[in-house]
From TrEMBL:
Its cofactor is Zn(2+). SMART domains: PKS_ER (SM00829). GO terms for molecular function: S-(hydroxymethyl)glutathione dehydrogenase [NAD(P)+] activity; zinc ion binding. PROSITE patterns: ADH_ZINC. This is Enoyl reductase (ER) domain-containing protein. It comes from Champsocephalus esox (pike icefish).
Length: 378
């Protein structure tokens, strides 16, 4: 492309400070350095983790930044040493890298990687180094991706090449939420055929967890949410029951225990609320119940009585659904193309990048499952 090797000026939604609307700005995106890929972002989802950074954690070292981490695009150019990608490839940038060389990447037990922003900067959710500038100031790259920009630069170990037939305005959702929920059920919980499951929180991640439970063969899937409007949506993805905790005077764990002869086999917390995490654990059957923490948060301690675990329950966490990122995302894209994974059904709104603040407001008010923003024409 004619832009290769040059600074690109493009539009991006910049978070100048926490708890304030994003501002559409013209930013400069430097060419990729060694082992980096510059990507034209075509579409991006708006995920609750973007809102978490902006409105909840509000870490002082995390601004100014370009948010967004659930995108898909096309390779514009590559830096020295990049052999895996070429101009024109369809790709999904990844917020978890897969270097394939560190002890975590070499272990089948985890999808963590010692390299990339996540290894060192969970609090600020970005690294100091960035290829973005705006008005003479360095702008941080959120979660190593920054998909609320027409162009971004990502290390090749955090990019997945995907099937050229994949529609980018759908598969962008596999960059975070859908893979996270689906994998939490299939990879982390390891939901078993004919089991009973409960999923707490029916945003995109929770609905994807419901879909994962169904794919794994669960016979009963209880969807739990305080929004009654989520009930019908949950059934689309495979839920057999819907429970609204507000409809009951008893604790939700007691309600589920009575429904399931002592508790569910698997529970997944997809909210990011420490109280709900405890509820999910206590909803599991003793002896073998497994509860997985999926919702992203790092603000408060969680608590439970030791007897819950002594009695044989397992409490575990899941990051990006346990998928090794560069391997797992192309598999999920194939699953979508083979009609084994739903994506279209998650998308309730389509907007442009310039409408990003409207999309954020929809999510804050619980009025959407996923909004997809068109960022650049293909």
């Amino acid at each position: 492309m004619a832009t290769a090797g040059n600074v690109i000026k493009c539009k991006a939604a910049v978070a100048w400070e926490p708890n304030k609307p994003l501002v559409m700005e013209e930013i400069e995106v430097a060419p990729p350095k060694a082992n980096e890929v510059r990507i034209k972002i075509v579409a991006t989802g708006v995920c609750h983790t973007d809102l978490y950074h902006l409105f909840e954690s509000m870490h002082k070292d995390g601004f100014p930044a370009v948010l967004g981490h659930e995108g898909a695009g096309i390779v514009e150019s590559v830096g020295p040493g990049v052999t895996e990608f070429k101009t024109g490839d369809k790709v999904i940038p990844l917020f978890i890298s897969q270097c394939r060389e560190c002890r975590f990447c070499k272990s089948p037990k985890t999808n963590q990687c010692e390299k990339g922003w996540a290894a060192r900067h969970y609090d600020a959710m970005s690294v100091e180094d960035s290829r973005f500038t705006c008005k003479g100031k360095k702008v941080l790259q959120f979660m190593g991706t920054s998909t609320f920009s027409e162009y971004t630069v990502v290390n090749q170990m955090a990019v997945a090449k995907i099937d050229p037939a994949a529609p980018l305005d759908k598969v962008c959702l596999l960059g975070c939420g859908i893979s996270t929920g689906y994998g939490a059920a299939v990879n982390t919980a390891k939901v078993e055929p004919d089991s009973t499951c409960a999923v707490f929180g029916l945003g995109a991640v929770g609905l994807a967890a419901v879909m994962g439970c169904k794919a794994a063969g669960a016979k009963r899937i209880i969807a739990v949410d305080i929004n009654p409007e989520k009930a019908e949506k949950a059934k689309v993805f495979g839920a057999t029951d819907f429970v609204n905790p507000k409809d009951h005077s008893k604790p939700i764990s007691q309600v589920l225990s009575e429904m399931t002869d002592g508790g569910v086999d698997f529970s997944l917390e997809c909210v990011g609320n420490v109280g709900v995490m405890r509820n999910a654990l206590e909803s599991c059957v003793k002896g073998w119940g497994v509860s997985v923490v999926v919702g992203w948060t790092d603000l408060y301690d969680f608590a439970a009585r030791p007897i819950q675990l002594i009695a044989g329950r397992t409490w575990k966490g899941s990051l990006f659904g346990g998928f090794k990122s560069k391997d797992g995302v192309p598999q999920m894209v194939k699953g979508y193309l083979d009609k084994k994974v739903k994506l279209d059904e998650f998308i309730t709104h389509n907007m442009t990048l310039a409408q990003v603040n409207d999309a954020i407001e929809l999510m804050k008010q619980g009025k959407c499952i996923r909004t997809v923003l068109s960022v650049s024409p293909q």
